[in-house]
Design goal:
This protein is an alpha/beta fold. Helix content is 46%, strand content 12%. The N and C termini lie far apart (68 Å).
């Protein structure tokens, strides 16, 4: 009597076609990324393109690790924004600072990580692992930020989204005068109305220059409460369908690395549910690229299952969660190329322009809450 086939043997049979000189990246992902973290990367590409990029989904990106110095702002993040594939961002300040180098025409170079740092210091060369640049790049970028924040529009307390929008306008104009385009994430985010927040605005050279100008009486100040409430309002509006008037929407998180930006992106749901007492269930889609282990207890490696226990992720949506244990510098270009090859562009949501509308929605629902 033939043995009954186990239910665990219903998965796709591993029998890939050989890779050839004409194999496209999309075919490579679909046909050759069959197991281990390659399979997770395939699942990430499918989750992103088949579910997260639906018109009713609002996609928030968190950005950590030195990705913009490696050129990934230009090669991946800017094309994603221009295609309507990223709707709002939480980034480390360092990524935005180093992004500005490209926007104001300063050079970064490939280098050898084994070079003596004592020699590099003597030569006034700064390195980020195997990225080298002249010390003057830091000084010139510092001078750029110190100059622009003297403008009247900066002399007040504001959210980091407003700050980055204003900075992006100046970088955009500098690019135009230099005869270049699409070199700066800040500039493109300004152009496409993509709000960018920083969870720790003092923890970067941008924040250090803001602090230096404060010693001279500059009135610019970051309002962290505005950041917390604006980001929560974006998520609530996405879920309530304020971005798509006739139907409820969904919220997706795309996490590159971990750290404070990951938490700031995910804490939007506990802010809505736990603190404000508004009825909600969590983000719908969770996609993370990380090299952090979960067993050390750090937030960077915390799994989507653990996020469910905090109310950060909708428990019914847990099957729509993928974690790739891959370097972001490897995964991001692949996910970007796959998405651009397989999915039509989306109309930009221009969330920055609708912050007041979203805050009004958040406030109206909070007024109905018993948590006040």
């Amino acid at each position: 009597m033939p043995k009954k086939k186990s239910k665990f043997l219903q998965g796709r049979r591993i029998n890939p076609a050989p890779i050839t000189s004409s194999t496209s990246l999309a075919s490579l992902v679909d046909e050759s990324f069959l197991a281990y973290n390659a399979a997770r990367l395939r699942e990430a590409c499918h989750l992103f393109t088949q579910k997260m990029l639906e018109p009713d989904v609002t996609i928030g990106l968190s950005l950590t690790g030195a990705l913009t110095p490696a050129g990934l702002g230009i090669s991946a993040l800017i094309p994603l924004i221009k295609s309507g594939f990223i709707d709002w961002i939480i980034s480390t300040g360092a990524n935005l600072y180093h992004d500005t180098h490209f926007g104001i025409g300063l050079a970064m170079h490939q280098g050898n990580a084994q070079t003596s740092d004592i020699v590099l210091r003597r030569e006034e060369v700064v390195r980020i692992y195997d990225i080298f640049f002249d010390y003057s790049v830091l000084l010139d970028t510092d001078a750029f930020f110190r100059q622009i924040i003297e403008a009247p529009e900066f002399q007040k307390a504001m959210s980091t989204a407003e700050f980055h929008y204003l900075c992006g306008r100046y970088v955009y104009e500098r690019e135009r005068k230099l005869g270049q385009k699409d070199k700066s994430l800040l500039a493109v985010a300004y152009e496409y109305g993509v709000p960018i927040y920083t969870s720790s605005p003092g923890d970067s050279s941008i924040g250090m220059n803001v602090a230096a100008k404060a010693l001279q009486g500059n009135k610019l100040a970051f309002d962290p409460s505005l950041d917390v409430n604006e980001t929560a309002a974006i998520v609530l509006a996405a879920k309530r369908g304020s971005l798509k008037k006739k139907q409820k929407g969904k919220s997706a998180v795309f996490i590159l690395g971990g750290g404070s930006p990951k938490n700031f992106l995910l804490q939007t749901e506990p802010q809505i549910q736990e603190v404000l007492g508004i009825d909600e269930r969590g983000h719908d889609y969770f996609l993370q690229v990380t090299d952090a282990r979960p067993d050390t207890g750090g937030l960077s490696g915390a799994t989507p299952g653990e996020a469910v226990s905090w109310g950060k992720v909708d428990p019914d949506r847990l099957p729509d969660a993928v974690v790739c244990y891959v370097d972001s510098t490897v995964a991001l270009p692949i996910i970007t190329a796959y998405a651009l090859a397989t999915h039509p562009i989306r109309e930009p949501k221009r969330l920055y322009d609708r912050r007041e509308e979203f805050m009004n929605l958040l406030l109206s629902e909070y007024k109905k809450s018993k948590r006040r």
